[in-house]
Predict the 3D structure of the following.
Amino acid sequence: MGGIVGAVDYYELLGVGRTATTAEIKTAYRALAKVMHPDAGGTSGSFRLLREAYETLNDPERRADYDRGDDGDTSWEDDWDEEEDWVDESDIEVTVETPEPPRRGTRQRARPWPRTGSARRTRTFGPDPEFTPAMPRLDPDTIPWWPEVDPVERIRLVPPTGPGHGPAFGSLAVWLLMWVLLPVLTGSVWLIGLWLAVFAVVTGVTLHLWRNQLAASRTDREFTAEFGIRTVFGRPGAEEGDVAEQLTARLLGRYLTRLPGVRIFHGLAWPDSVFADIDHAVLCGRRLVLIESKLWLPGHYTADEAGDLRRNGHAYRGGGTRLPEGVEAFRDLLPEVEVRGVLVLYPNRAGEITTGEAPEVPAPPMSPEQFITEIGQWLAAEPSTVDRDLFRVVLGQVVRPEGVATPPRPRAES
């Protein structure tokens, strides 16, 4: 592929586009050099690679050669320091292929990793296909909302379909009291007449309240019988490339199910879509969080006020997301619900991913630990509430609900 030498894309390394000006390249290099210089905690190998990328793209002729697929750079031969490692293995992998032996009668200059012939230098500055991130494990003692939640608290189904037990039992108590007062009123005809009138009203109200309450109880039982005690619906991706989804699915099941009212969904479609556009969703009460799971390069990720992603202080072009659009689509679908989105990030090679404070944007990046701490606290506002209507709407967006009978997905109003 043109513009990529040894699997390293210099444009991606500098965080600039292929049409970037010389001034933009220089600005990007200076900013990265402050972070990647060995004196600032970087490695000599990664800094040398950064400098090579800058020197190549800053020179018009070398840049043109690089864009054609031949960087034409041999300067590394002149300034090679044999006592200095080319890379730090935790940052950049190096594969060395043994060069062909020199022909008899000829002299061959010894040099590390020649660029031509059957020997070449290969550098990997990107995902490691052999690397699998570990499942994050949190100590419950470090989760602020953990002790505040009773995992066996009785689930409260809303919206209420009946008057509730209080009014029903209250009306019954008044009705019984009327019978207690009857012997006191036997000496007066007009009092008996008044008693009969009041008794008729109380009896009617009591019957009405209890009829509605029994119907509401039947509705609750039918809902419970249909979905049982299940808290997880749908299936995360099962392909080899769906590692991040599988990790997040386990993360949600291990920690957020402590909230009795939490319902977890995997593989959701946008309204009027038939594809799994959203990896996961968690509903608790009237709060819904939509989640995308990503395998990205190690580093420090943030989002600016506009929601644009940044890595190590620079615009991140190593991956994209449409989750903000999904958040807006679900806000339109459920206008009475608080909806937010989160990108849960895992490293795609050896290294650590950290995230900054989540700004008020539709889909900020978060580490798994930050997600459990902050989003768990947000959902714990109504830890034992299940909204039946909202549940059915969200369940209707699950692409593979595993045999659960789901209502037709609501159509957007034209």
Observations:
- DSSP finds eleven helices and 16 strands in the chain.
